[in-house]
Design goal:
single chain; 461 residues; alpha/beta; 7-stranded mixed beta sheet; 18 helices; 41% helix; 16% strand
Amino acid sequence: MSEKKIPYKIYLEESEMPKAWYNVRADMKNKPAPLLNPETLKPMTEEELSVVFCQELVKQELDNENPYIEIPKKIRDFYKMYRPAPLVRAYCLEEKLDTPAKIYYKFEGNNTSGSHKLNSAIAQAYYAKEQGLKGVTTETGAGQWGTALSMACSYLDLDCKVYMVKCSYEQKPFRREVMRTYGAGVTPSPSETTEVGRKILAAHPGTTGSLGCAISEAVEVATHTPGYRYVLGSVLNQVLLHQSIIGVETKTAMDKYGIKPDIIIGCAGGGSNLGGLISPFMGEKLRGEADYHFIAVEPSSCPSFTRGVYAYDFCDTGMVCPLAKMYTLGSGFIPSANHAGGLRYHGMSSVLSQLYEDGYMEARSVEQTSVFTAAEQFARVEGILPAPESSHAIKVAIDEALKCKETGEEKTILFGLTGTGYFDMVAYEKFHNGEMQDYIPTDAELQAGFDGIPKFPGNME
């Protein structure tokens, strides 16, 4: 098909929206390792997980066999408020870089939460409502997930309690106020409101917090409050399943115009957007139908893939959650207060960790000043102010496009633009004022995190 016919923005019709989520685990030869009970070291049962999570979500969490899971009509109707999301051909960026590469990005920022997180928030809130629960608890880093969940809960008349990483709570007061506008209660974490929060504060006075701390507090409140369950915005199998709508929409749009990406890039913190974007393409690769080069991009300050170890570890700092097998820096690792709050997590999704271990993906770490340089460059030519998290993918997409300029290759590059950065102006201000610093943890600092990983036969061996 003639290149001229590819519009700047490709929008699907509502009738073309996916009616099912795609479960990449069904096509994985090596399934992700099961969650373990930290006391018995045996796989968590449906019954055990149902104490923390909604029953239907537990089924999705444990389902490694069904490739497609139907999206309930009420969720599809909610999706129509902001989906289908556009697939954008970055013509302006290509011209500015003077590259023969063709660059596309899937833009997930067309909603008030400003990110892709709403795709899973509405699903998790829906299943909580269907179960007859009163409310849910969660954690949030940069605030996109907390905002998304508060929106979904207000739509369904559910109570929403959010534990927000303390440095983000202070850096992003407006994000906090959006959550409160939608009716959520927001507490800076670690806090004095939970037993685990008090313990963390006693051990680390003055800590700026981490997603691992906030998870511990949210889980404690969910398990000690009747009628509540815990929901999570990333890492879990169920979340990657819901986020597959990103990739399925992207692939449908690309197939419509006969476009096949060579390189697919996503930022990686816990793995929700990366897993969602790549899933149908990864499915093709796993089934031997097509080949793609996948690149996960993470911050140098929190390098789970590039410098972490593949082992069973706690998902949270307070060690109250199940053990997940993942690339991890240790649940006690508290990253520096870098400005991509959504990527400040010590571990990586078990699905993505298994795919990475099996050699299906590459991972790169990048420093935040280079990330903000790329973000600014992108904003100036494509007209969207990107979130710091998304800008990690932008940085590597630009790197790959410039390599094509050197080699003359006309590669097709796809990346996930997970959301907007309008609530991240403190970070942009520090960058513009020259006050932003790059922080790379030393081997000794990483070792302190590794030392806290549970020791049992077969782990870390």
